């Protein structure tokens, strides 16, 4: 294993954040082999482990908390495929909440990106993500792992890039942000329409404000209030929103939001963040004038 210092040499060089060394797996990084080993509250996720990571048996590790937030592999692959059609001038992707690596792995294996910056604030979870990327054969040179707070990173990137290690300085005009934040908060599981203002620990406004200077994808609960998402659309434009489904049931929605500066003409629809995937669409009367929606089935 490499250095256990999550900032590598960044701290000694005076940078607030730098690339993480290769972190060691700890006792929190678990590879459960049978249901009898699994805490009761994650047993249903363990039962779906091959839908979460199809190569689970090859040595995939997760912390107990990571089971709740990992994107199922077919959904992660579908999102990566949808971003294949994004503006080719965008060559860098920031995974703001890398978790155990599900989305990062899919993006890296898609071959679409020259660089991926994957940020995770929990060291044990980041160690799992690095391990899982190795299991899936991700080229280590493709991903720059960062142990830290993604909001601090984004703020520094936009306002004080000289405070970041040179490896973490990217051109925001050629970068897309993917954010799959925690979905905590009252009503997330029970409300027919989830109020994104109450999402915890980060609400819709906080997320959008952090990423607005770049094209960004927000991965949100399937019942999210689409009217709140529509308000993020630049004037005269629509935001593609995709419901990703497995076995006939929606798992989550993704909103593909252009940077605030992207206010070009209608040609941007074809050449912008992402083409709307084919599938049954809802009418504008169902969604409001600033949103287009599609249902994307995945295997």
From TrEMBL:
InterPro entries recorded: RNA_cap_Gua-N2-MeTrfase, SAM-dependent_MTases_sf
GO MF annotations in UniProt: RNA cap trimethylguanosine synthase activity
Catalysed reactions, semicolon-separated: a 5'-end (N(2),N(7)-dimethyl 5'-triphosphoguanosine)-ribonucleoside in snRNA + S-adenosyl-L-methionine = a 5'-end (N(2),N(2),N(7)-trimethyl 5'-triphosphoguanosine)-ribonucleoside in snRNA + S-adenosyl-L-homocysteine + H(+); a 5'-end (N(7)-methyl 5'-triphosphoguanosine)-ribonucleoside in snoRNA + S-adenosyl-L-methionine = a 5'-end (N(2),N(7)-dimethyl 5'-triphosphoguanosine)-ribonucleoside in snoRNA + S-adenosyl-L-homocysteine + H(+); a 5'-end (N(2),N(7)-dimethyl 5'-triphosphoguanosine)-ribonucleoside in snoRNA + S-adenosyl-L-methionine = a 5'-end (N(2),N(2),N(7)-trimethyl 5'-triphosphoguanosine)-ribonucleoside in snoRNA + S-adenosyl-L-homocysteine + H(+); a 5'-end (N(7)-methyl 5'-triphosphoguanosine)-ribonucleoside in snRNA + S-adenosyl-L-methionine = a 5'-end (N(2),N(7)-dimethyl 5'-triphosphoguanosine)-ribonucleoside in snRNA + S-adenosyl-L-homocysteine + H(+)
One annotated Gene Ontology cellular component of this protein: nucleus
Domain of life: Eukaryota
Pfam families according to UniProt: Methyltransf_15
Family listed: Belongs to the methyltransferase superfamily. Trimethylguanosine synthase family.
Annotated PANTHER family: S-ADENOSYLMETHIONINE-DEPENDENT METHYLTRANSFERASE RELATED, TRIMETHYLGUANOSINE SYNTHASE
Name the record gives this protein: Trimethylguanosine synthase
